Structure prediction request, 231 residues.
Amino acid sequence: MSDCILIIEDETRLASLLADYLKAADYRTHCLNRGDGAVDWIRANTPALVLLDLMLPGTDGIEICRQVRTFSDLPIIMTTARVEEIDRLLGLELGADDYVCKPYSPREVVARVKAVLRRGQRREPVPEGPLQLDDDSLRVRASGGEIQLTAVEFALLRALHRAPAKILSRGQLMDKIYDDHRVVSDRTIDSHVKKLRRRLAEILPPEQELIHSVYGVGYRYEDTGDHADRN
Prediction:
């Protein structure tokens, strides 16, 4: 059997259903129906992935995600019935690797689990340049220091970084970021790029621009030092 998937879900029937589907896919599972105590369990057991409900008794999913990210980069998929965009973005900004909105198909959740775990297993060489990308820790280093990115921000930077000077459309970037090929808006990609640029500015000289907008097409990674085409 594969490593353990931790399900933190207060709806016991739903948690049991998810566990059954994951077991059928050859995963071990463990279920918690409250948020308090979840972080301690994760510290003690180090699951392969956490399925984390947003609304929980005791401690909510956002706080659990925040605490876990202080000591671990283990994959986290957030599940929620709150479909407002702010909740989705907040979950990802905190370091969640993916989210699934309720009601959902258990088969979809299993597919997301497999996709996130596959993404974490990839260890491809990265090209030389001003940045050093660490796939294991989601950290990026440059002469100006080091930053920790979310999984989505790191996947976006990695996709651009591994294709220097090549223009990647928003659609291509969506496919590289989301293994399940979900449909997201162009504005979502633009939002991720804006945040990524802001984070890179923390460790790069002011004149060094790496991610460039190509009007009407997408983005390219190139160290030109030119800010003229930045959104």
